[in-house]
Write a structure and sequence with these properties.
- The protein is mainly alpha-helical.
- It has helices spanning about 5-30, 40-70, 75-110, 115-145, 145-150, 155-160, 165-170, 175-190, 190-215, 225-250, 265-295, 300-335, 340-370, 370-375, 380-395, 400-415, 420-440, 445-470.
- It is globular, with a radius of gyration of 23 Å.
- The chain is built from 18 helices and no strands.
- It has one domain (about 40-475).
């Protein structure tokens, strides 16, 4: 019979070895790994993918927060300009996300099938599509920047003095688009650590240049909100150049083969077919945010500024959760390619539960003390009050949305972008926008009515997605 001291030493040894193993897995995830995600132990596969994807999304979050932090020093009109421009950019983000979904589905499926050249072909088609679309959007975006601000309810000060901000960002949207698409190529192939490093580079440059270009230093003139746009574009542009360097250098799981650099009609058709569903669901979801901004604008610049800051903070905490969801999408695609649908399903439920725990903790913090986070960005009492109200109300729905976003990404990873599109139409256009207008305008809840409508719509979305996921039709998707 073992003594108490022997048992104690045994359990300490187990705990010590477990912690050492966990730390080694974390380091491997951050530095990059060559593990096969279709055969690796599922819990480890999720960890190796999720950690760099979460860090990547944190980098994206910091990107958004850094801009609003420095711009907030310029006043409420400058904050509102960024908020309205971000709402306009959601169309570009929607297209980029839609193409990313198709890219993830195709590349991950080919990697799971152990066909790297076909994965390279899919990556090239995605880059071609993104470049063409961005040019179609960018030219009219630059020309009609003021008209777009006017359409979104901006005041004359914003239209006359802030239009340079959307002009620069809309005109350079090809950089945003390529950043989305190429990072999706890396993630879906399993090289999530590369995507993380790309955004770390973009972020570092943006944070360095933002205060220099906005406020000026030495020979660098103070450019105000124009400087914020230039800093953002410069950081992202250098990161895109780094992406192409990695793709053509070819040390990762995926590289661009020279003979793959051509238009492939069949693969392009498959990409566009899947992308249409992805773009559709993204436009439906993100256009609802444009609708929300338009409704919020009815209550003045203070309400709009508070909403803008609250949404930026929410994006900060939701993007890491999207990183976890992206891990599920990659695992679904690769395991379906390896003909392991049951393993793909287990991966989705596991990542969903992890996401619920993480966002549940964040939700509690925001409900208890939302004012602290708004005060980090501005000292205006009225803006703090309305922003904190929005942060508190919207965070109530986090635990539902945590599972919902994983489910949605699971459908997308399988190549079934149609199902999330239908869900989004119901939840965001039929429920969210009309409900927000009714609660805020007719029920007298003002901006809190908009916030309430958001959590109701997204909770319903989660319930519908879970029901459809359990039916399992996504497992039979052929791409």
């Amino acid at each position: 019979m073992l003594s108490k001291n022997t048992l104690s030493s045994y359990y300490k040894s187990i705990n010590k070895n477990s912690l050492k193993s966990l730390w080694e897995d974390i380091l491997e995830a951050i530095s990059g790994t060559n593990k096969d995600f279709t055969s690796e132990k599922l819990s480890k596969a999720i960890l190796l993918l999720a950690i760099p994807m979460v860090l990547e999304m944190i980098m994206e979050s910091v990107f958004a927060i850094a801009d609003i932090f420095f711009v907030s020093k310029l006043g409420s009109d400058a904050i509102a300009t960024v908020g309205i421009t971000e709402s306009l950019l959601t169309i570009i983000y929607s297209i980029g996300m839609g193409l990313s979904m198709a890219t993830t589905a195709l590349v991950s499926r080919r990697i799971g099938e152990k066909k790297p050249y076909r994965a390279s072909i899919a990556a090239v088609q995605a880059i071609i599509a993104a470049s063409v679309i961005s040019l179609i959007i960018g030219i009219p975006g630059m020309i009609f920047a003021k008209d777009l601000l006017r359409l979104m309810g901006a005041n004359s000060e914003i239209i006359n003095h802030g239009s340079i901000y959307p002009t620069i960002l809309l005109g350079s949207n090809i950089i945003i688009m390529l950043l989305f698409i190429i990072n999706a190529v890396f993630r879906s192939s399993g090289d999530a650590a590369i995507s993380m490093r790309v955004l770390l580079l973009a972020n570092g440059i943006n944070i360095l240049l933002d205060p220099l270009f906005i406020f000026g230093l030495g020979p660098i003139p103070a450019m105000g909100i124009k400087g914020a746009a230039i800093a953002t574009t410069t950081g992202r542009g250098i990161a895109v150049l780094y992406q192409f360097y990695i793709l053509f250098k070819g040390n990762g799981r995926i590289k661009i083969y020279k003979k793959a650099i051509r238009l492939n009609i069949k693969v392009m058709f498959d990409l566009i077919k899947i992308s249409l569903g992805g773009i559709g669901q993204s436009i439906i979801a993100t256009s609802s945010w444009i609708g929300m901004v338009r409704i919020i604008a009815m209550f003045g610049s203070t309400a709009l500024a508070g909403y803008t800051i609250a949404i930026r903070i929410i994006i900060f905490v939701l993007l890491p959760s999207w990183g976890i969801s992206n891990a599920a999408a990659t695992l679904v695609g690769q395991n379906l390619g390896a003909n392991k649908p049951d393993r793909a399903e287990r991966a989705v439920w596991a990542t969903g539960y992890v996401n619920m725990v993480l966002l549940g903790i964040v939700s509690i913090v925001f409900i208890i003390e939302p004012y602290f986070f708004i005060k980090l960005f501005i000292n205006n009492t009225d803006i703090i009050t309305t922003g904190a109200q929005g942060l508190r109300i919207i965070s109530i729905g986090f635990i539902f949305y945590a599972m919902g976003m994983v489910m949605i990404q699971a459908f997308n990873g399988a190549g079934d972008t149609r199902t999330p599109t239908k869900i989004n139409i119901i939840c965001f256009w039929i429920i969210e926008i009309p409900l927000a207008y009714f609660l805020s305008k007719f029920y007298g809840m003002n901006e809190s009515g908009v916030y309430t409508a958001i959590i109701i719509a997204e909770s319903i979305m989660t319930l519908i997605a879970m029901w459809l996921f359990k039916k399992g039709k996504w497992k039979t998707e052929q791409i």
